[in-house]
Amino acid sequence: MREPHVATGPSLAVEVAGMRLQNPVLSASGCFGWGEEYARFWDLRRMGALVGKAVTPHARPGNPDVRIAETPAGMLNAIGLQNPGPAAFRETILPRVHSLGIPIWVNVSANSVQEYVDLCGMLSAEPGVSAIELNLSCPNVGRGRAEFCVAPDAVAETVSACRPVCRCPLIPKLSPNTTDIAALARAAESAGADAVSLINTLVGMAIDVDRRRPVLGNRTGGLSGPAVKPVALRMVYEVVGAVSIPVIGIGGIACWRDALEFLMAGATAVQVGTANFFNPMAIPEILDGLETWLRRNEIADVREIIGAARLEK
Amino acid sequence: MIPILEAEVLDHYEVAPEHFVLTLDAPPIAEQARPGQFVMLRALDAWDPLLPRAFSVFHADSEGGTLSVLYRVVGRGTGRLRGHEPGMYVRAWGPLGNQFRLPEGERVVLVGGGVGVPPLVFWAERLAALAVPMEIVALIGAQRGELLVGLEQLKRARVTFRCATDDGSAGHRGYVTDLLPRTLEGKRATVYACGPMPMLRAVARITEATETPTELALEAPMACGVGACLGCTIPRRGGGYARVCSDGPVFPARDVDWSLMP
Ligand SMILES: Cc1cc2nc3c(=O)[nH]c(=O)nc-3n(C[C@H](O)[C@H](O)[C@H](O)COP(=O)(O)OP(=O)(O)OC[C@H]3O[C@@H](n4cnc5c(N)ncnc54)[C@H](O)[C@@H]3O)c2cc1C
Ligand SMILES: Cc1cc2nc3c(=O)[nH]c(=O)nc-3n(C[C@H](O)[C@H](O)[C@H](O)COP(=O)(O)O)c2cc1C
Ligand code: FES
């Protein structure tokens, strides 16, 4: 028998790696600043957690020249991990976002295992940091890295080195620029990851035919937005079947229907990236839509639909 | 809070070949808009193009609640915008970015090229309405005479203007910046400029030599328009990058590292 309808509405709360999130809708790294920009449009206390821009071992000015290019239903970016570095992050940015009163996930990005370990050590015990998302997949910062993060043994090595020093949940973020993303996820899980998030951007390119040269100063960039959603969804579906830790779905989510697709594929939560750019209200609109859908379908708890579309069940 | 709304198109007409003025019913934006600021516009439910486009505020009537932009059809975003008849809606958010700062000296010189003219017209109107006596001179450039825009509004605001066209079909034949050195003579002036990058570079070179305070309203490819994506940066003199959308779009000319500009 169905529970009588609760006046307070359906529960949107989920649990990821021991953390209770009031709802499963988060921002994606690099697509939400540190929240301030969107706090001018809506009350950020509505979101499940805020995932901020990558922090690297040292301040990075970012890439010169053209950094973004629009493509059909998507965009390419080669921002180059512009950020003020861990010390400035800790002193000036973190206290400010901590005061928002929502869980903060810090996305870290580095060039070597040791640097990842150092960043985890430096940031994971800071007050206000709920989780560390290991960006094992930024395609825009030099050739060595792209190879570094698409091999399962490199993922395993990085995650197992970070695990002992990381004082909060550790969530590797996986690259889609690989032939077998389930293998990356399994490597992360067996090395001690608390959850995995995916996907980061797909490496792509655009050419300016008038100037006869690549549009982006960096030549290549990461593809994101609605164009990548089917690929991301397939990868999430596959990874959910391959691991037993929670999976955070990312890629092209622009409306509540998209979010629902990822949840039904088995994602415990989702992150919204590029959609914030073309609709600053994307996250609250997705939350409203999810709630309405649950209510209309008389589902009291969002967790009931996680994995609902999986065929093996 | 920054207003974001589905704004009704009230008026949409061609002012010059391929140049349109779009007027929206957008009271909360119109009320807050200041010269130099811009709005993001996007067709409802469209994924081609995906990203919104930035447009400088051309006119804001806070009493009537209307907001106008002036644009040239060049590509997918503006091509789509052009199809919006009165009664249709666009998604609009803003005003975004900073604004022009008040001038120093006794003369204000506005240098505008192409679709860089709209924010300067709005600024000229607001400056002309101030009770402070100052001389305002606008230098307006375009490829051909028929593409000169904003002149009627300048006339109505009683702002003196001079024109330049590439082909000489109206005013000076050549660059609008050719007219600048003479206009700076005699009085202490402040320069405001908006237009194509080569024009801005020329303005910056001229006014740096004369030590004339100069503000430039810049453009860059944008995704978010609010400071979140770091996609719209320009090199800052002294190192690092500034976001055009949220640190600008108005910058003192001396803050830009011209040696690294594309
Ligand atoms: C702060 C700011 C204020 C702006 N204000 C205005 C304004 O008041 N009026 C206005 O018309 N535009 C303005 N723009 C430019 C506007 O946002 C769009 O970039 C421009 O209209 C082209 O968009 P599109 O989608 O039509 O062209 P796209 O499809 O993006 O581009 C098509 C082609 O046109 C080229 N192109 C892009 N922009 C321009 C341009 N400005 N001139 C010539 N070719 C171009 C591209 O390189 C591409 O090859 C402003 C931009 C910024 C950042
Ligand atoms: C402009 C931009 C900057 C990004 N920066 C980061 C980053 O710093 N770290 C990271 O892990 N992912 C970064 N990403 C990837 C996104 O977090 C996300 O994984 C990807 O864009 C796919 O989601 P979307 O289609 O919803 O944008 C960035 C994406 C964009 C578009
Ligand atoms: S357009 Fe996104 S930071 Fe300026």
Could you walk me through the main structural features you see in this protein, from its secondary elements to its overall organization?
- The complex is a heterodimer of chains A (313) and B (262).
- By secondary structure, chain A is of the alpha/beta class.
- Chain A has a single domain, classed as TIM Barrel (Alpha-Beta Barrel), CATH 3.20.20.70.
- Helix content of chain A is 32%, strand content 19%.
- A 4-stranded parallel sheet of chain A has the order 3-16-15-10. Chain A has a 4-stranded parallel sheet with strand order 4-7-8-9.
- In chain A, helix 3 (113-123) packs parallel to helix 5 (152-162) and helix 7 runs parallel beside helix 8 (256-265).
- The longest helix of chain A is centred in the last third of the chain and has 15 residues, at 282-296.
- The model of chain A is unreliable at 140-145 (pLDDT under 50).
- Chain B has 262 residues and is an alpha/beta fold.
- Chain B folds into 2 domains: 4-96, Translation factors (Elongation Factor Tu (Ef-tu), domain 3, Beta Barrel); 107-219, Rossmann fold.
- In chain B, the strands form 3 sheets. Chain B has a 7-stranded antiparallel sheet with strand order 4-3-7-1-2-6-5. In chain B, strands 11-10-9-8-12-13-16 form a 7-stranded mixed sheet, sandwiched between helices. In chain B, strands 14-15 form a two-stranded antiparallel ribbon.
- Chain B is globular, with a radius of gyration of 18 Å.
- Chain B starts with a strand and ends in a 10-residue tail after the last strand.
- The chains are: A alpha/beta (313), B alpha/beta (262).
- Chains A and B meet through helix 1, strand 5, strand 6 and helix 9 of A and loops of B.
- Flavin-adenine dinucleotide (FAD) binds next to strand 4, strand 6 and helix 2 of chain B.
